[in-house]
Amino acid sequence: MFFFTMYNNCIMYIYGLITTLLFLIFLPFIYIVRAINGKFLYGWREKLGFFSAPDLGDKVIMYHGVSVGEVIALENLIKATKNNFPDYKLVVTTGTKTGQDIAHKKYGEIADFITYFPFDIPFCVNRFLSKVNPTVVLIAETELWPTFAYNCKKRNIPLYVINGRISDSTYRTYKMFSFFFKQILKNYSGIYTQSDYDNQKLINIGADADKTQVMKNLKFDVKRSPDKISMGTGRIIIAGSTHQGEDEIVLKAFVKLKKEFSDVKLLLAPRHPKRVPQVVELVKNTGMSYGLRSQNDNFESKDIVLLDTLGELGKMYQICDFAFIGGSFNKTGGHNPLEAVVYSKPVVSGPSIHNFRDIYGILSRSKAGKVVKTAEELELYMEKLLSDDEFYKSACQDCETVFNDQQGAMQFVIDKLKQILN
After folding, report:
1. Active site residue ranges
2. CATH of 235-405, one of 3.40.50.2000, 3.40.630.30, 3.40.50.720, 2.40.170.20
3. pTM for the whole structure
């Protein structure tokens, strides 16, 4: 143990020295380039440790999600943590401005402090830890910050990876430098992964097998709405959270499908309500009958209904046969497909799904979810779901199987926290 400690200290001293020097050398160039590009150094003061924190006391639970996807994934867990540990202060950190914006939007009234995660440089990390003084730190996904992990270990702060996953490309890089990452992973109190596959990859890199465990995926901890919806007869396609340019793709496909399947209907839900008038014009151009949800129109007399009300899309997925998830034919990065899958409804998306890449990785291993590259592929896949009864039934069953297999991640973390804090 003594030799491991000396070896670990030596590695971290060299790593800290190198990262500090590189940071100081490249900082002026980064600043100039971003200034020329019109981009600002969002959160850099906080990342450097120059921020004012409230008096958080000595009972602090800290969650970190680097960007939008991770911050969203933590939502139900953070709320459950607040309910289960009311005596503890909650701190939420992110690494990006978009993640910070979402954190303030979702947790502004829940978390006691929201800020940026520090640069992985000794003076930044130490300033951060001294101000926040966390009792326990839980990092979503698999962000291995050597200096942060080392200093948590030095301060006897339990540090955990939750909802851990590791892409094949990242795994290859970490495996190549496993002599280094093996030492880093020893500073973690526990590593809890989404799957056996992720679990084994981390062990191969050097994580202790007795500290590494499968917890499943937090993003699957969503519930069905208790509200029951009825919109009339026919097989219903939902195009949910569509963005500009996607309504045209969906409507073009729907017009063709309607000629082959007369009973098919479309519920079209633009992501932004201000776009409804524009989408209405697009719908009019199809020549089909249409109505508005706000006027209680349904599919008894309409082929297309626009969902122009707020907060209803999630529960609407219960009435569809399958769903197209928008934000995936532009640079948005997709929206949550699990809002439909929770009702055992297959989903299809365009190629831009980086906000939910891990989810689609799980869904697309079966028929529960499909990622298509083009509008033509979207139309063909919709046609298959409508024409091949056996394929459709199998896809619905896969939704239920995948969803059930992934349940329980949130309670897993809450139970671990009870063991740590009690």
Report:
1. 70
2. 3.40.50.2000
3. 0.78
